[in-house]
Amino acid sequence: MMSRKLAWVLGLTATFLLVEIIGGIVSNSLALLADAGHMATDVAALSLAWFGARIAQRRQGSAHQFGNLRWEVLAALVNGIALFAIGIGITREAWLRLNEPREIDAVLFGGIAAVGLVVNLISLRVLHGHHQHDLNVRGAYLHIMSDVLGSIGAIIAALMIHFHGWVPADAIISVLVAVLILRSAWRLVKESGTILLDRVPGHLQVSQLEERLLGVPGVTRVHDVHVWTVTSGLIAMSAHAVVPVLEAHPTVLRQIEGEMTALGIGHVTIQLETGEACGAEQCGHEDHGLLAVPGTAPHRH
Questions:
Q1: CA dihedral 146, 148, 154, 159 (to 10 degrees)
Q2: Burial label, 209 (beta-carbon count in 10 A; 0-12, 13-18, 19+)
Q3: What is the Cα–Cα distance from 156 to 39, expressed in whole angstroms?
C-alpha cells in the first residue's frame, strides 16, 4: 500500500531530521543545520504526499470532500512561508560566519552528514518505481533527491574542514543548501497560491476544453466552461453543452467525460441542454461567452 510506504519514509526522515538538528548544534556546523532545514522540506513534502494518498483511499461523496482536500493546499502554503524564513535565516547566519568563523567539529559533522546520505538513499529506494506513474509520490521523490545533494555538499564541507582547515566551506555550503530551500519554498507558495485562487492549471487552456467539447458529435454549443485544481493531482471542470437531440444525451455525456479524462481532468460536471429553453439570449452571458459549432448558430467568446 502506497500510503504505508510513504508513512515509513516520513517517519525515517522526521527522525533523522531531529538527529541533524542536535548534531548541528553540538558540532557547531551551519551546513548541517542548513541540511536539516532542507530535510524539513522533505518532511513537509512527504506529509502532503501521505495525506494525498490517504485521501485517495477514502470513499467519494463526502459533503465536505473538496473543502477537506484544500487542507493539503493550505498546509503547503504555510510550509512554503515557513521555509522562506528558514532559508533567509540560514543565509544571514552564513554571512555572519564568513566574517567571524567558528570552530567546528568536522568529524561529528561529517559522520552525521554521511548517515543522512544513507537515510536519503534508503528513502529513494523505497519510493523508487512508484514515482514514475504517481504524480503525488514523484514530488516527494524529487524532494529527497535534492536532499541527497545537500548531504553530499555537507560531507564535502566536513572533509575540507577536517583535512585542510578551511572553515568557510561550512558557510558556503550552507548558502547553496539555502538556495535549494528557497527554491522549494517558492514552488510551494506559487503552486498552493494558484490552487487557492482557482486559476486555470498551467498545462490547460479553457479554449482547449471548448474545442474538445465542440468536437463531440451532437454538441452544437458550449458555454460557462470552467477548469481549476482542487488539490494536487485532482483537476475539476464544469460546463454547459447544448445537445438538441435529447436521446443523444447519454452517449454525448459519456464521450465528453472520456475527452476530459484524456486531458487529465478527474472531476467532470456537465449540464446538457437541448437549446429550447436556453438559447443565446439566455445562456450567452457577457462574461463567459458562447461558442457554437460552425453552421449551427452565430458564436462569440
A1: -140
A2: buried
A3: 18
User: Model's pTM, two decimal places?
Assistant: 0.65
| Residue showing cell 486531458 | 263
Q: Give the whole-angstrom CA distance, residue 138 versus residue 73.
A: 17
Q: Which helix (H) or strand (E) is 150 found in, with range?
A: helix 135-164
Q: Position 111: which residue type? A: G
Q: Under a CB-based contact definition with an 8 Å cutoff, are residues 185 and 154 in contact? A: no
Instruction: Give the angle subtended at the CA of 41 by the CAs of 228 and 70, to the nearest 5°.
Output: 30
Distance between CA atoms of residues 97 and 28, nearest Å = 11
Per-residue pLDDT of the chain (301 residues; tens, 9 = 90+): 566 777 888 888 888 889 989 988 998 888 888 888 877 877 877 787 677 666 655 544 454 456 666 766 777 777 778 778 888 888 888 898 888 888 888 899 889 989 989 988 888 888 776 545 454 566 667 677 777 877 888 898 889 998 988 888 888 888 888 888 788 788 878 888 888 888 898 888 999 999 999 999 999 999 999 999 887 778 999 999 999 999 999 999 999 999 999 998 988 999 999 876 444 444 444 334 445 555 444 444 4
